[in-house]
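Hey all, sorry for the wall of text incoming. These are the two entities for the joint prediction.
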Amino acid sequence: MKSEVSVLEGARIFPLLATLTLGIIIWFIPVPSGLKVEAWHLFAIFLSTIVGIILKVLPIGAVAIIGIAVVAITGVLDPNSTKGAVKLALSGFSNHVIWLIVLAFFIARGFIKTGLGSRIAYIFVRAFGKKTLGLSYSLLGADLILAPAVPSNTARGGGIIYPILRSLSESFGSLPDGKTNRKIGSFLILSAFQGNIITSAMFMTAMAANPLAVKLAGDLGVEITWTGWALAALVPGIIALVVIPYFIYKIFPPQIKETLNAPKIANEKLKEMGSIKIQEYIMLATFVMLLVMWIFGKSLGINGTAAALTGLGVLLVTGVLTWGDVKKETGAWDTLVWFSALVMMATYLNKLGFISWFSGNVQGVVGDMSWYIAFPVLITVYVYVHYFFASATAQVAAMYAAFLSLGIAVGVPPMLMALSLAFMSNIYATMTHYGTGPAPVFFGSGYVELKDWWRIGFYISVIQMFIWLGIGGVWWKVLGIW
Amino acid sequence: MKSEVSVLEGARIFPLLATLTLGIIIWFIPVPSGLKVEAWHLFAIFLSTIVGIILKVLPIGAVAIIGIAVVAITGVLDPNSTKGAVKLALSGFSNHVIWLIVLAFFIARGFIKTGLGSRIAYIFVRAFGKKTLGLSYSLLGADLILAPAVPSNTARGGGIIYPILRSLSESFGSLPDGKTNRKIGSFLILSAFQGNIITSAMFMTAMAANPLAVKLAGDLGVEITWTGWALAALVPGIIALVVIPYFIYKIFPPQIKETLNAPKIANEKLKEMGSIKIQEYIMLATFVMLLVMWIFGKSLGINGTAAALTGLGVLLVTGVLTWGDVKKETGAWDTLVWFSALVMMATYLNKLGFISWFSGNVQGVVGDMSWYIAFPVLITVYVYVHYFFASATAQVAAMYAAFLSLGIAVGVPPMLMALSLAFMSNIYATMTHYGTGPAPVFFGSGYVELKDWWRIGFYISVIQMFIWLGIGGVWWKVLGIW
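and here's what came out:
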């Protein structure tokens, strides 16, 4: 007798029920005073979406679609207009930072397809390939050199470093296939991502939201200069760049550690590849053009996403990439969907006043403390609240000014507070796969599992706070900042 | 000796040069007086994009990316802010009508994957399958019955009719593969699309922009009632529904015309398929749920796109569709990119005043004419200017009121002008593959080539104007409308 009921391959039932139960309970809890009902309901949906992602109810993109659907159908973003609510629910899809990421996926495909990525990887291996740890430091060196001049950490991490290390990993037979991830790829991804966060914190011009922090501090009377920032960040930044990759190497070791004959193999491979193909030259020229546009974007008047669009246009016109390659780049479409859902929710949690309500409650707690206690409390809250943010910039825009004024009010030296919050506005991205622009590119590669990403990210957040506030604090005392 | 220069697979060189030359010439022509320089430059980019699509410089999506890149990099939409210009260039990507289309692609996949589409198709074939023409009329009958109650022509044409006829075509071995298109699929696609335009024109509630036209006419003192609309449309609508599919059948004949033993084959196939699987029941339930939400959306307070998001959510939770199915649905991503580019450009051609400048120039030409001449001139201009619009709604919003007031000013009976423009606000979508919501769904199937779509669309626009204004004009005289 043939069974007529087929097994469904949909959501995992118990995680689904847990997520739904959580969301429904929060939804129906009486709304805390001082908060709009829409803000509370959006928080319920946001938290359920995050929990649904963590519990792997379905793949991230599917959870995101359901999150968007719930936002749209409940109309929380615009209770007076069903069409208006849907428009806002979809607003993340036109975010220019998300498109920079999506375009970086397409452009990275060009490195892989033309073989230029492998060629660069082999040249790297030939020069630095004796040990895996050395390889990771050399990638971070490249990131550090670019950092002062490339204000988009997404372009730098996602557009420049990622394609190179991706090809590097593949040339070592390490693919995001669930079998060979840990050979070398997962270690390189995680150390490049965590290193990118450090370089972003080291220069005022190394991350898009840094100048915003400077502007907000200036409004409160704290003038941070370019050199002041760089000098204060120098010691903790260099220490972090040395310590963090080593920590990852120990806690999340690559299987390939010694690669003594790799330089020889690389040299053979480079000979096999022959001279550079015309597609590789075009890819290289596009890459250099992108680099120039990203580095000199401000003076040339070219936005980073506009540059990336142009770069993709060049690759399409010259046939280095076909439209078919773009359509089939499923990782890009996946990222577009889930990142758009999270950015939309984070944006409206802020706009509906949830974030300021949250800050207000924190203020009630720390109001009477001495600043020696209030300072670490404020910084810790500022860092860990980033679990709820899908963008580094959004939290700076929402909370930087409030926390700075709060710190100044309880007596923290203003420049100490301003710089600490500014550095932490980068460092807080260590913890999640959505907390800053390059995170979804690196995470989206599929080399590192979500639980490892979050677990190691949390450990590193603790180490980073010790390095920046502990060692950094001493250094800033020496500099006379406090 | 091995050649070191590989052949590139990029843009077709001469069409590319022609398109670029056209764009550059228009860009540098002195800006016509009364027009902002940004509006003129955007028009240059828009026209080049359309020409690039028509000349097949690259696949549509690639041309669209280049169009978006040019808009972004030239900063025409916001000359004062490179970031602002990019944000506006990407604004199409969050358009809720586009997402309704994208979601319809995903949902249509569920019909195909579960086999429910084939099952419905075979039931259709069993009942009406003796002749291809009869089959197409039966699909139009279904569309007509739904039309008064489903105000989204995209949901009706793209979400309901399209998946059924797609399965129907595939069951006849007609795929969009460049070989078997013309067996039956290309005919059914074209007649369903053109028929959908007719049913959209027949009821005030059959297309989203119809109520907008009624509102704008009301503002100018012309009160159109639901019954008044339906009665005026009855005769020309029914005639068009009979004539247009027959015209397509003659000018663009399917290879399969007589399908005498198809009902028998269909019955065999249905027996082979056995009883309905659980996935099919879920798909059917989702479809009915969507139908209810689309039909009663207004009274339930549910937007069409929100309904589609919910439907996709149900299919994902139950595993009828996996996230992998969604990511791999390249037709949807393709449509997202090119439709977003066109909607963005059309929106800003309007916002920057190009459309009103254009209307103003038309006014200068017809100002002194008798209304017997001005009326057909105005209607003809109104219809054919739709080549420049990527949405039926956009043109209504931009031009309906201007043309109605112009017609009234030169002495056209107000109700005649108001109704004619309202009907033409649907009919003008015959001509392109982007002029109304369902167009990219039907066109995106790949069954009909662009040149056929445009050629036959143009012929039908002429026939439609004769039916509606000629025969309809007599009918409206009988009704006492003029």
